[in-house]
Amino acid sequence: LCSTCTELDFHLILRNGIPRESAISLGPLTGIIQRAGQCGFCRLASIVIRRTWLLDEHPHVDLSEIQCSLYSMDCGCLQDPAPAPKELCHRFYIQPSDRPREIYDAMLAANTGLMLDIQLLEEDACNNERTEELHGRRVGDTIDIGLVKKWLDLCEREHGDVCESVWWRGSDKNLPKGVRMLDVTCMSIVHAPPGCRYVALSYLWGGMGAEYWTTQANLKQRGVSGGLDMSSLPGTITDSIQLVRQLGERYLWVDALCIIQDNLKDKAVQIGVMELIYGSSLFTIFAAGGRTANSPLPGLRPGTRRQQQHIDVIQGLHLTVPLPMLRETLTRTAWDTRGWTFQEVMLSRRRLFFTDQQIYFECGQDVWCEDVVAERKRQPRSYQPLRYNGVGGLTFLRTPPSWAKNEYLSSYASAVGLYTQRQLTMESDIVNAITALTNAWTKGFKLNGGDPRKAFRFGMSITDLHTVLLWQPEANVKHYRRSNGGMGSAPWPSWSWAGWRGAVHYAGSGQYLEIHKNTESPRLLESLVDPWFIVDEGGEVVQLEVGRMNRATAYPEEIGPRQYLPPQGIFDPLQLGLTNEHPPEPGTLIFRTSSAWFDIAQVNSVSSNIETHYAFFSILSNIPSPSTRVGRIILPLSIRSPASLKFIVLSRTNGPSGVYDENVLGERYSGCFLYVMAVEKKGDTTIMERVGVGIIFEGAWL
């Protein structure tokens, strides 16, 4: 120990605790890092700070003014009623005097925790007259199968319906006909037996050829006992088979083996029930530690994972830095970047994650891992550091109450934002890879009568089409049109986020003042288009079942001096020249609205260190005076400025101050903004395509 740490009684500090406000000074952070080679406790402090603050990725950040201090407090309680505070597991915590902004932003992006803690291993808990609960646990070269069995048994036995039932699945627990399983006992591909208890696998396909896939040619052979050759399978799958066997289970669902890969009809059927496959599995294995299908499950076999846990003995106490939380660990994996894996984790009720750090178990009630002793029946007022640091919370795990029937929209918006940040090997999979989620929302919330074919088109919710049309591109990402392999070279429709490569989000009108602000969802006051039609896959024009939102006002003064009224009239396809000679592409939206041309000019915004490909453009009118600002829109920087664009009206909303000339056009009032879409003609056709979405002051439009 260094001279500073020699003065500390670590036994006493852990046993009695030290409040944060009475923290003991450890000196400058730079000194702690310099002493890490000679002092055991400074080494632990340096490890947790360097890892949590991502210092290896930010070597030039200035740490010279930061002082550190040490305090100790309990890290949780698994009992109810709780014992005396001194009987609870305590940890050491490093408290810095400051945290550089660059470091804080990097930590948020990497999902690292903010706490800098050091834990005592369970073998020394009795020295402080405490139980082993919430103390550290040694992580070996291989996983403890008995521990995994304990997690599963505890969840099944104690968590009851919370982790057993799935709100979108309904009462029938049998999988649809045609779903197959890998029988790990007989090593064959079989039809899922009624009430089948099975495990599912989520993994990365890359790095392997198609030799191990199930095809029409080898399906019959694989259907007999011993017909599936283990030696032909990649490492992730063979390890998963061994794991399922060791856990005493019989059936495993693996997409490459259980779906006939060269049969488009079979693939379509299986993709259509994927929410049931993942939602009904006993648990899902998430192979998050690899980069290809041939990667091992880390820790299942000797030599398949590197020791990440560093233990130092300080004054006879075995101390270690807790391994990263699940959310932080996944953020750094290739698995977390892939499109298909997103719905697989969202829809699985129990999850077993294999990572380079350790294995984690997450269900609807708790999160457990190898390096913390936290296994206990959940009590009403219990808490522990792992519990809210999993990947749960992305979708309801229980049946939503009737009053929350529209809550799916916020879940949808959040999911689209996360999903579009991921990559797909086949860009044409953009809708297929989220179909299980849209099916779950449709069935759980009874959208459009619970019929997925009516509730979603091209990944967009038809029930709330007015709202979901308002997606915006992430400003720091380039966007390109996405081709749909199912329609030859034709791109996906421009009105859907699926028609573009690149991350998108949903945000309220506040984003038109701060381009990176997307904390709130769009809030519509009135839909201004009705009805909506679409050209279906067969070229027929069909009406969409879009919910209508009428404007509600409490007082007449809340309405402006003049009100925009949407154009009326009976829709006639012949009026638009929709004939067999010039049929529009499937996915073309048809609706009646009003349009107008406005000038646009890029807004001179404050410079930012965030790279951006989009910017604010003012929407300008020469009425009542030249270059009057009437609204604002977000457009790609490639748009020529100044220029003129055609705009169409979509809906009504409120908006922020500062985006139009209020001294010229008058003050804001409730519902004074119109959501508008900038459009441009597609080639020589009469079809228009989306350019961007913005807001215009109602009076200026009129």
From TrEMBL:
Short name of one Pfam family: HET
Organism this protein belongs to: Serpula lacrymans var. lacrymans (strain S7.3) (Dry rot fungus)
Protein name: Heterokaryon incompatibility domain-containing protein
Ranges of residues in domain Heterokaryon incompatibility: 198-344
Top-level division of the source organism's lineage: Eukaryota
PANTHER family in UniProt: DOMAIN PROTEIN, PUTATIVE-RELATED, HETEROKARYON INCOMPATIBILITY DOMAIN-CONTAINING PROTEIN
